[in-house]
Amino acid sequence: MNSDNSNSIESVLQEQRVFSPSDDFASKSRISSFSRYLEMSEMAKSDPNKFWGDAAREELHWFKCFEKVLDWSNPPFAKWFDGGKTNISFNCLDRHLSSSIADKVALIWEGEPGDQKKYTYKQLHKEVCKAANALKSIGIGKGDLVALYMPMVPEAAIAMLACARIGAPHSVVFGGFSSEALRDRLINGEAKAIITADGGFRKDKVIPLKDAVDCALEGDSCPNVESVLVVQRTKKTIAMDKGRDYWWHEIVDSQSEECLSEEMDSEDCLFVLYTSGSTGKPKGVVHTTAGYNLWSHLTFKWIFDIRENDVYWCTADVGWITGHSYIVYGPLSNGATTVMYEGVPRPSKPGAFWDVIQKHKISIFYTAPTAIRAFMKTGKEIPDQYDLSSLRLLGTVGEPINPEAWIWYRDVIGGGKCPIVDTWWQTETGGVMISPLPGATPTKPGSATFPLPGIEADVVNSDGESVPDNEGGYLVVKRPWPGMMRNVYGDEKRFRESYWEYLKPTDNKYIYFAGDGARRDEEGYFWVMGRVDDVINVSGHRLGTMEIESALVSHESVSEAAVVGRPDDLKGESIVAFVTLKTGAEANKNIDAQLKKHVVNEIGPIAKPDEIKFTDALPKTRSGKIMRRILRALASGDEISGDTSTLEDRSVLDKLRN
Ligand code: WT7
Fold first, then answer.
1. In terms of CB atoms within 10 Å, which of 182, 416, 549, 611 comes out highest?
2. Using CA atoms, how far apart are residues 627 and 629, in angstroms rounded to an integer?
3. In 3D, which of 166, 73, 168, 182 has the Cα closest to residue 128?
């Protein structure tokens, strides 16, 4: 098992501290005791159809109620709430308009160079209707996939809700991906339109998003794309292709403020979101309407214990699932105030996050361990300069959090009084799966604690059998849940193989394999240890090592490449590439820089190798398989443990060591 991760077994094994919710917090919360959590879990387990059916009827608006809660007759293809008709845009907007929530602030946007916008639910509803009408006016309708390649501006959320409103699945592509990566996704998803911006502000630079779109569309490489809608953000001069490109303000602003929501079948596709796997190109994770809506709604309500006056801020980008579920859909479906921030902390603005918390009196803050570790490094002097007393609850997501960072987060940011919810989940799960409930669960630093009610998580061996307490194994989910992914876009085989057939349960049951390793302690707490496949997690960003390898070997000078993760104090993992060059090419600084730039062009800056090690040969087995275990040990300077007898050429090892 790959043990490259920041939650080192030693630090986690030594972790004995338990933090219980304060009486004050617990007494005001919705799920206010651990026994209540157990009761809910028991209810969900003994009668899942009733549990999920009741929740779906109570929490969502239905144009037509469903007939069946779960159809699992054709696993691994689940149907949830079959026969029902609903719309997530309606659930996030229209249903709040008849209550006092109508005039409550739905979205606070904090722009990078200091601009700011606020939308009440009423205003957001109007903007979404106008955008939906504009999409219709350029020929987008139910079932047409719309790609979004945008900065963190309100129009990103508006566009998502507008697509959902008219039944056009969206596919958000993170603005930090390159034009090559964008093109792959446009082709795979058969996108009919793209929504982008003239540029985005990132740190002190302008990211030329529209130029990248033009580049991705060059030479008719994406024949399905008919139109491009461009939000003006940076006022940078860009090329506009007449007949294909439209300015957002020119076609959206003049539209009617009314647009009825399309009545969607529960299982109609809501969005496709690409994520990295251990093989091949990124896969399009398919989520559907009702199940995803329920899961993002319910998990948000349970985990953040949202109250009327909360101001909630999640620092993710809408290009990731966290932004989908916990900036846009979960908060808005609950009628909460959600903050969207365009900036990122950096040396010139080390207090940027704390400034936002102070300014908007944020009460719930949700961020990644990488960010916390970076703040720890710059010292508590910086957050200490800000008034963070509005905070009442803190969350983390994306990677294991080391106990040291957890304690720092609690003491320095939370003033010792805020519960921390360490939420484990994935693009595939739609919403959080394992997490404390802040008013109910005693927490242990570094543990995501327990599965949410209705989630039957387990740690198993390769036969799918539960392993004893404190023994490592594969993290799995043994029962379908509403927010589960429904398919890999256009690739059923990959869906089966990656998630449902990787482990071979002796009873042939379908269990969902998450790709993570975990252990459960004697009290039932889950400790997620990190990926066990060839996926690495760099600053909470998920990358397939094979994707980076393909990018490297597509360079003319490269013969072979192998990429591994190396534990990194700040980023969780860093990227180390072992590269053999073609004859004639010389290993030097120049080629090192060229290759790094090449990966940035092929995938994006997040995939840039931290280090490239040039070598004459890679360690392989006799059957030609690269022995990554050895490379991982070499990359992190560890002893090479375990069997090396299968190595084809033992002299490779000595050379690599030097
Ligand atoms: C992978 C999923 C879920 C939204 C962000 C990432 C890792 C996620 C935790 C956590 C330990 C975590 C896992 C998982 N991960 N949350 N709380 N503790 N590991 O979504 O890009 O789909 O990545 O992130 O390895 O498999 P994603």
1. 182
2. 5
3. 166
State the helix-helix crossing angle for 209-217 and 179-189, rounded to 10 degrees: 60
Q: What does the alpha-carbon distance between residue 199 and residue 232 come to, in Å, rounded to a whole number?
A: 8
Cα(139)–Cα(188) distance, integer angstroms: 21
What are the C-alpha distances in Å from 437 to residues 92, 423, 553, 571, 609? Answer: 23, 10, 46, 27, 38
Distance CA 440, CA 25 (A): 9
Instruction: Tell which residue, 269, 293, 324, has the closest CA to residue 58.
Output: 293
Q: Cα–Cα distances in Å, from 209 out to 189, 201, 278, 618?
A: 19, 10, 28, 38
Radius of gyration of the chain, Cα coordinates, nearest whole angstrom: 24
The b-or-e profile of 297-329 (16+ CB within 10 A means b, else e) is bbbbbbbbbbeeebbbbbbbbbbbbbbbbbbbb
Output the six-digit token pair for 510.
């379908």
CA-proximal residue: ligand 1, atom 2 (nearest) = 426
Task: Give the other-Cβ count within 10 Å of 633's Cβ.
Answer: 17
CA angle, corner 309, sides to 305 and 313, nearest 5? Answer: 65
Give every CB contact of residue 176 below 8 A, 6+ residues apart in sequence.
202, 207, 317, 319, 604, 605, 606
User: To 10 degrees, the CA torsion angle through 124, 128, 134, 140?
Assistant: 170
Q: Best mutation site among 318, 366, 397 for ligand 1, i.e. most ligand atoms within 8 A of its Cβ?
A: 397
* pLDDT of the residue at 575: 98
| Residue 203, pLDDT score | 84
CA gap 220, 235 in Å, rounded:
27
Q: Divide the 658 residues of the chain into consecutive groups of 10 and give the mean pLDDT of each group.
A: 46 78 95 97 98 98 98 97 98 98 98 92 98 98 98 98 98 97 97 98 92 96 97 96 97 98 98 94 97 98 97 97 98 98 89 96 97 95 97 97 96 97 98 98 97 98 95 97 98 96 86 97 96 93 96 97 95 96 94 98 97 94 88 89 80 82
Asked if 410 and 418 count as a contact pair (C-beta separation under 8 A), the reply is yes
CA of 8 to the centre of ligand 1 (A): 16
Compute the C-alpha angle 338/342/343, nearest 5°.
Answer: 120
Residue 11's pLDDT is: 63
Residue with token string 């990078």 = 112
Pair of tokens at residue 607: 């995939």
436 prior amide bond cis, ω within 30: no
Pocket of ligand 1 (CB under 6 A): 275, 320-322, 397-400, 422-427, 448, 514-516, 528, 530-531, 537, 542
* Residues 442 and 18 sit within 8 Å (Cβ to Cβ): yes
The candidate with the shortest Cα–Cα distance to 315, out of 245, 389, 369, 237, is: 369
Residue 432 CA, closest ligand 1 atom number: 3
Tokens at 45, concatenated:
């387990």
pLDDT of residue 3: 37
CA-to-CA dists, residue 314 to 107, 341, 439, 451, angstroms = 12, 9, 20, 21
Q: Which of 306, 302, 295, 311 has its CA nearest to residue 436?
A: 302
Q: What pTM value is reported for the model?
A: 0.96
How many A from CA of 426 to the centre of ligand 1? 5
3-state secondary structure 108-164: EEECCCCCEEEEEHHHHHHHHHHHHHHHHHCCCCCCCCEEEECCCCHHHHHHHHHHH
Between helix 154-166 and helix 121-137 the angle, nearest 10°, is 60
Phi and psi torsions of 131, nearest 5°:
-65, -40
